[in-house]
Write a structure and sequence with these properties.
The structure is a single chain. The chain is 37% helix and 26% strand. The chain is α+β, with helices and mostly antiparallel strands. It starts with a strand and ends with a helix.
């Protein structure tokens, strides 16, 4: 029997844990994380944990949870995708890792504390914004891209060859089939 620990019960660090029941005992195990980070098919020497974001496995769990909440309470949530292209042209592997960490900090500083940031492989950041309508998610997209642009200008155009695309999708619970559908529709809106 598997139970998913919910952070609403004060288990913030265990919210990514699976509680396994074995007889009368319960064991906490961290859910599997996609620990490898890829850029253009090349594995980087950094994990999602070191980057400070979660990966695709936890994103799917969160999206399923948000769909359920949306249907139950009849509110919307939004997702934002930030596609990064030509990041491999920044320089050597350590430089790419540094740039990825900087981008993570910029995106995290551009969203609300209630929003969650994920990194999907191949240079794709994904923001889950609970209880957020379309107009607010569009504003968030503009803020994120503007912050990245400002950072690049302040740091001698360190990201001048890197291209950024953002897109947003708002889920009302009835316009998607499943969590994977949300990811695909959000990515489709990147332009």
């Amino acid at each position: 029997v598997y139970y998913f620990a919910n952070s609403a019960y004060g288990l913030a660090d265990l919210s990514r844990a699976i509680i396994k029941r074995k007889g009368e005992n319960f064991n906490f195990e961290l859910s599997p994380q996609d620990s490898t980070i890829l850029i253009d098919g090349k594995q980087l020497p950094i994990t999602h944990q070191e980057l400070g974001v979660d990966g695709p496995v936890y994103l799917l769990k969160r999206l399923k949870h948000e769909i359920s909440r949306t249907l139950r309470y009849n509110h919307e949530f939004s997702c934002i995708a930030i596609k990064v292209e030509h990041l491999n042209e920044v320089g050597s592997t350590p430089t790419i890792v540094t740039a990825l960490k900087q981008l993570t900090k910029i995106v995290l500083s551009s969203v609300r504390a209630t929003d969650e940031l994920f990194y999907l492989n191949e240079s794709l950041f994904f923001v889950l914004a609970p209880e957020t309508m379309t107009n607010r998610s569009i504003t968030m997209c503009k803020t994120i891209i503007g912050s990245i642009h400002d950072f690049s200008l302040q740091n001698n155009n360190s990201l001048e060859n890197v291209m950024f695309y953002s897109g947003t999708f708002t889920c009302d619970g009835h316009n998607v089939k499943n969590a994977e559908d949300i990811i695909n529709k959000t990515i489709e809106h990147c332009s």
